[in-house]
């Protein structure tokens, strides 16, 4: 399934617009990962454990959105917007949301 942030897909005319589709994932932060990320912040460098969590959350959210598109009979999603938010008390959770327009090309 094609997924793009652009409003159209070059070389693939849109036959039908099928509506807004989205995917949301909320993940809790692991206390040990937080502790090691804090050390990484202190000594410098990248927090690879957080990067893996962000990548996993993004992939899951996009997969949810693609499933919603498929359910509507679409085969592509255009105009995709991806957002990351920290939620929960003390910012203990990460929310990744992705939205777009389901289309049939």
Structural features, described:
The protein has 105 residues and is an alpha+beta fold. The chain has one domain: Hypothetical protein apc22750. Chain B (Translation Initiation Factor IF3). Helices cover 35% and strands 37% of the residues. It contains two helices and four strands; from the N terminus they run E-E-H-H-E-E. A four-stranded mixed sheet has the order 1-3-4-2. It is elongated, with a radius of gyration of 17 Å. The termini are close together. 18% of the residues are buried. Pfam families: YbjQ_1 (PF01906). This is UPF0145 protein K3181_06085. Belongs to the UPF0145 family.
Topology, number of strands: 4
β-strand percent reads: 35-45%
DSSP helical segment count: 2
CATH architecture: 2-Layer Sandwich
Secondary structure blueprint with pairings:
Elements: E1 2-3, E2 16-28, H1 31-43, H2 48-71, E3 76-87, E4 93-104
Parallel strand pairs: 1-3
Antiparallel strand pairs: 2-4, 3-4
């Amino acid at each position: 399934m094609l997924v793009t942030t652009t409003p159209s897909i070059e070389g693939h005319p849109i036959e039908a617009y099928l509506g807004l589709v989205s995917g949301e994932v909320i993940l809790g932060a692991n206390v040990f990962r937080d502790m090691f990320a804090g050390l990484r912040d202190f000594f410098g460098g990248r927090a690879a454990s957080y990067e893996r969590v962000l990548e996993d959350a993004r992939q899951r959210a996009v997969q949810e959105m693609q499933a919603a598109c498929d359910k509507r009979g679409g085969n592509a999603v255009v105009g995709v917007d991806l957002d990351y938010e920290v939620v929960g008390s003390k910012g203990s959770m990460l929310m990744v949301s992705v939205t777009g327009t389901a289309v049939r090309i």
